[in-house]
Amino acid sequence: MKLSELNKEQIAALSDEKKTKIIFGDLEDDGGKGEFVVLLGGRLSFLSERVDAAARLYHAGRVSYVVPSGGVAWDFEGGKITEAEYMKKLLLERGVPEEAIVLENEATTTKENMIYATLQMNRKLGLTGMKKAYVATSQSHMRRSLRFAEVLLPSTVEVAPCAAVGGLDDKDCWYKTDVGRQRAERELYLIKDQIDLGILPDIDLG
After folding, report:
1. Which residues, 6 or more positions from 188, have their beta carbon under 8 angstroms from its beta carbon?
2. 188 with 3: CB under 8 angstroms?
3. What pLDDT, in 10s, does the model give residues 130-155?
4. Among candidates 28, 25, 26, 38, which has minimal Cα distance to 132?
5. Are 179 and 150 in contact (CB under 8 A)?
6. What is the DSSP code (8-state) at residue 68?
């Protein structure tokens, strides 16, 4: 049976084991190098793990640039700050230098993250200068994000995951808390929607 064949009620009734199979794509670090990592935004309360993942990649010498991407503005210290601006603040605190940070301050969806990040890196390096990009995001968000990157980045750019560690929606613990379950299962239904639209390949549930 394939995921596309199930309705919402049938998906909700799946075991946690089957949900894990659907939600989480390939999270393995390939150990390679690229020109940049697209750091995806979200609610300020769970961006720290994503920033940590991107900063580790930079400090390991595996990318030259970090592209914090996200234009949604949140309340912060009596004012407003965008996701990208907040992630830049955290990157600087983690020792990533200003010149290595390429701010992308417009995107409001995962799809737009990839489009606008590509635009910023094209301005920095040109299309011929982009050979490989990493995507830094939460584990439950990775499958969907990688697919958008594969579809929307130039076909000449290889895409690889840089999954965050320590979030409530990690692969090995998402089902242990209400918050983790809510975040992961939201992705489950978004994955199903993308399969129905032909963006993601269908998933065999065995």
Report:
1. 11, 19, 22, 23
2. no
3. 999 999 999 999 999 998 999 899 99
4. 38
5. no
6. E
Is the backbone of residue 146 left (phi > 0), alpha (psi -120 to 50) or beta? Answer: alpha
- Does the pLDDT at position 14 exceed 90? yes
Distance of CA 164 to the CA centre of its chain: 9
Asked if residue 29 lies in contact with residue 161, where contact means CB atoms within 8 angstroms, the answer is yes
**What pLDDT shows up at residue 49?**
96
DSSP 3-state of 45: helix
> What's the confidence (pLDDT) of residue 45?
82
- Contact indicator for 159, 133 with CB cutoff of 8 Å: yes
**For the chain, what's the residue count?**
206
Residue 4 is predicted with a pLDDT of 92
CB 66, CB 101: distance < 8 Å: yes
Is the distance from CB of 73 to CB of 64 less than 8 angstroms?
no
